[in-house]
Structures are given as C-alpha cells and as structure tokens.
C-alpha cells in the first residue's frame, strides 16, 4: 500500500504540522528545469499533478479551481470578451473554461514547457483546449511578458503556484501595475490568492497589493478539497466592472446561454457567483 | 515525531483512500460506553477530540462549526427565541453560541456523559456555557427524548456525529417527524448534514428526508478544514420562517446588537448568512 502525503510547508504556510494523504496506485517522478514534478495515479482523485511537493491538479476536483478562477470574472463582462491572457495554467484547465465564453484569442504564457507537455499527454480532459486554434501558447516568464503590453487584454488570469520558486514575482505590486497597464479600460485581473485559512497573511497581502493598483478589489472563496485546509481564494482586481454589480437578471441570461451552448458547469452558477464573495470575519480580523 | 491520521471511512464515505494528518505532541485514549475517544494535543490545531476515529472538535477551527450550526437559524427568528433543544453537542460549543441569543432555556440531550465530562475539563473555552443556569443538561437518547414533546421548542439543533454508532437514528425521517411535532408553529430545525463532496449521497438523503417533513428546507455550506474534504454542510428544516427571506436591514440590526452585547463573531456575518446557501451545481447533479 503506497500513500503520498503532502506535508504543508513553504513561504507563508501557517500550518506546519498538517498534511493530506492519498492512496497511490502508481507514481512517476521527474525534474523539470523549474521544479520537481510528481505524477500520481490515486485511488480517490484520479491522476494527480504535484509540483515541488504541492498538489496542483487532480482529475476529481480540478473543475472547481478552473471554473472558479475563470467564470466569476468572465460573467462580469456585459460585452463579448475578445482577448484573454492566462499566466501559468500549465495544465490547460483554465483555458478550457475561458474558451466557453468564445473569446477571439487566448494567450497563455507558461514558464515550464515540460508541465504543458506532460499535461497534454496525461490529462487530456483538462488540457484539450490547448490545441484550439484561438489559443496562442508561449513559453516564458509571465512577469516579463506583460511588461511592454498596453491596453491589449480584456482579462488577465494568473493561474500560478505558491509564492515559492518560479511564481514569487507574480505576487508583487510591480507585476500588478504592469497587468493594470496591459488591460483595456474596462479590463479585469484575477489571480489565485492562496488559502485565507492556512496562508492568511499571504492572502491578505495579495489583496492589499491589489488594492494599491485597482479601484475595485474583490476576493472570493471556493472549496478545494485537495488544497491546504480546503478553503481557497481568488481575488479580482478590476478597473471599472464590479462582479458584485452584475444584475441577477443579466447574469442569469448569460449563464443560461453559456450552458445551452457549452453544457452544464459543475460548480459555478449565478447564486455561487454572488455567494462566493461573502467572507467570514476571521479572514480580515484585526491582528 | 508522532502523527495522527484520520483515514476517511464509514457509512456513506465516498473517499476511501484519503486522510488528514496532524502532528501530535501527546495523546490520551479511552473507551466510553458508546464510543472510542482520543484526546490529542497537536501542533497546529490545539487540543483535538476524536470519536470513533473521526475528528470532532479542534480548538483552532471549532468556531466555524459552532457558529454556523447556530446563528443562521437563530438569526432567522424575527422574535426573541425562548426555548432551544440541542441534541448531541457534547463539547458544549453549540450551547455557547446559542446562549449569545439570550434564550430563556437551552435543553441539551447528549448520550455520552463521558464526552461532556472530558470536554468540561479539557476544552473550557468551548464547554463554558454548559454551567450556565439557563442550560438543562440531560444524558440520554435524543431520539427518545423528542418522541413525546409537542410544540415546545423554538429551535432544535442536531449536533451529532456521522451516521454510524449512536447517531444513526438521527438521520431518519421518523426522527425528523418527531422534531417537527416538538417545534412551535414557527419553529426551526437544523442538523449537521455531512460533506456534500465526500459524503454526497448521505448529504442528499438528509435533505430528501427533511423535504418529506418540512415545507422549507435549506442546506448551506461552510469551510471546516479538519473535516473530510473541508466542505461541510448543515441543513435547516423550517415550518414557516425562511432563512433566505430575512430582510438584510433587519438582519443587520440583529447582528449589530448581538456583537455589541456578546463580542465579535469569527465566522458568521450577514453576507455569510446569505452566501452560505449558494450551492455548487455538482452537489445536486443528476446521477
């Protein structure tokens, strides 16, 4: 009987004696130029991608992360979204969800080519959108990529790992400023923003840095069973459009159109759109 | 280095190869007449109570469970709540939260006297309400206790363990019918209703059984990091009052009055009150 345990650790992790264990049928280990990669076949979670010791993607619960990093921002637009930038997102799940909104172009900038290649082979149901002709896949540093962009994107999604290794720079104010500049005048930025329970200080710092840059900043919560504590967050930074300002009737119409065209979503719905922005008191308590 | 791992198992558990591990400083084991009890001192979670192998209560996250099993129902009453029945709830945390609404009387019926005695000694910050003069503590079978009650309680809270061992009968339609009868004409019932992710079938069955008995049935969700998958639910069954029908202005007023009198809550607030009832699609998907 083989078990994999992720012992929670790393920059900003407030749980230092806790771990999640999964029964494993088989495993494959390799080192990419950027990180350590472990591919597991598990009993409960299907195939699981682990980077630098942290579970990134499981076949069983990936729909939650990928729907919820994408749809709240995308459904906030009252108009057709044309050009979307995804930074990170090597498994392709975020691009899969973005494509459901029929953008003209999705640019994805992932630093680690090997992650994409493994996901194309091992997670076809997650990565299948990467072959779409509207998707421009670039390998490089997302931080550098946005630096010279101006008023180009409707939406920028930062689908990155924890603030260690290659992702550190994606948690900093300078990067958020460059993203602001790279967005159109009604553009929206969204980033994964860690666990408000297990990495409370990091989460709050992301929100604080975004508030220096964007006039509208809205953190929201989702259940991700295989991430530390299961309580996860994303944060939207927006120039004009407020995800909480969308009229329920307009959202309902857009939502019904999308699921008629693309099939059912498994997590996101209009009630979840509004409800996810309700934050328990302890997250922003005075310290 | 000592670690405790809860390997998820038992009636209705859909995760069969997953566990949560906690670093342990010391532990104490005993057998009560009803269950196996393990008391842990842990690095991250403070003291932890484990019954029949399942984590019940940790000092670090107990506030979430106890606030959220209590306040959504209690804040649904437009009037003073007079008499509350708590079934189970041996650690006393639910009673502590109920008392913040100044009821005249709280009856608690717990089957396992030893759990209460250990919690009084080991978890004083959780069990401190049990000594309040308004609290009538009875040891016995909650199922039997409600059978001959009629129109007596404003609110019945079922704070029980999983549907194995002594708690099985608390998941059945007959019990819900007796609770309906034991409630006043505008009474509310609330029960913990397992993880919609990890015990989806059990959760849905609780909701279905309650729908046979109560005209208004409202499941809602909370983040509980130390319970299987971290995604947990409670379900309200109500005769007349709808937790989603409370006017925001009225709720805001009641909430401010309570926190001025009792101090801040750590999880519940009016946004969370409404937001918790937003349920992701997969929970009630067609099978």
From TrEMBL, chains A, B:
Family matches, as SUPFAM superfamilies: S-adenosyl-L-methionine-dependent methyltransferases (SSF53335)
Known pathway: Amine and polyamine biosynthesis; spermidine biosynthesis; spermidine from putrescine: step 1/1
Sequence positions that bind spermidine: 66, 91, 159-162
Record Pfam families: Spermine_synt_N (PF17284), Spermine_synth (PF01564)
PABS domain residues: 1-239
TM spans (from-to): none
Catalysed conversion reaction: S-adenosyl 3-(methylsulfanyl)propylamine + putrescine = S-methyl-5'-thioadenosine + spermidine + H(+)
GO biological process, one term: spermidine biosynthetic process
UniProt xrefs under InterPro entries: PABS, PABS_CS, SAM-dependent_MTases_sf, Spermi_synthase, Spermidine_synt_N, Spermidine_synt_N_sf
Position of the signal peptide: none
Active site annotation, chain numbering: 159
Assigned keywords, A-Z: Polyamine biosynthesis, Spermidine biosynthesis, Transferase
Main enzyme class: transferase
UniProt EC number: 2.5.1.16
One annotated GO molecular function: spermidine synthase activity
Binding site for S-methyl-5'-thioadenosine: 35, 110, 141-142, 166
UniProt cross-references to PANTHER family, sorted A to Z: SPERMIDINE SYNTHASE, SPERMIDINE/SPERMINE SYNTHASE
Function recorded in the entry: Catalyzes the irreversible transfer of a propylamine group from the amino donor S-adenosylmethioninamine (decarboxy-AdoMet) to putrescine (1,4-diaminobutane) to yield spermidine.
Family (UniProt): Belongs to the spermidine/spermine synthase family.
NCBIfam families: MFS_SpdSyn, PRK00811.1, speE
Binding partners and assembly: Homodimer or homotetramer.
Name of the protein described by the UniProt record: Polyamine aminopropyltransferase
Name of the gene encoding the protein in the UniProt record: speE
């Amino acid at each position: 009987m083989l078990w994999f345990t992720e012992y929670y650790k790393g920059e900003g992790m407030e749980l230092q004696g806790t771990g999640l264990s999964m029964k494993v049928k088989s495993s494959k280990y390799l080192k990419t130029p950027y990180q350590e990669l472990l591919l597991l076949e598990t009993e409960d979670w299907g195939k699981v991608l682990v980077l630098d010791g942290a579970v990134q993607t499981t076949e069983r619960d990936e729909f939650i992360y990928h729907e919820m990093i994408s749809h709240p921002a995308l459904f906030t637009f009252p108009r057709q979204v044309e050009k979307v930038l995804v930074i990170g997102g090597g498994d392709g799940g975020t691009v899969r969800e973005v494509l459901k909104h029929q953008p003209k172009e999705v640019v994805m900038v992932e630093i680690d080519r090997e992650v994409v290649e493994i996901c194309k082979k091992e997670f076809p149901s997650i990565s299948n959108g990467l072959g779409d002709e509207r998707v421009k896949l670039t390998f490089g540093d997302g931080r550098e990529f946005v630096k010279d962009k101006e008023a180009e994107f409707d939406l920028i999604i930062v689908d990155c790992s924890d603030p260690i290794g290659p992702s550190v720079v994606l948690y900093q104010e300078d990067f958020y400023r460059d993203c602001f500049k790279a967005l159109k005048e009604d553009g929206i930025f969204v980033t994964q923003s860690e666990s408000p329970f297990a990495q409370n200080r990091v989460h709050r710092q992301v929100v604080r840095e975004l508030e220096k840059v964007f006039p509208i900043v809205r953190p929201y919560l989702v259940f991700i069973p295989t991430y530390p504590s299961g309580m996860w967050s994303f944060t939207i930074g927006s120039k004009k459009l407020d995800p909480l300002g969308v009229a329920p009737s307009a959202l309902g119409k857009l939502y019904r159109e999308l699921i008629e065209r693309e099939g059912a979503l498994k997590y996101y719905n209009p009630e979840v759109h509004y409800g996810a922005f309700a934050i328990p008191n302890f997250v922003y308590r005075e310290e």
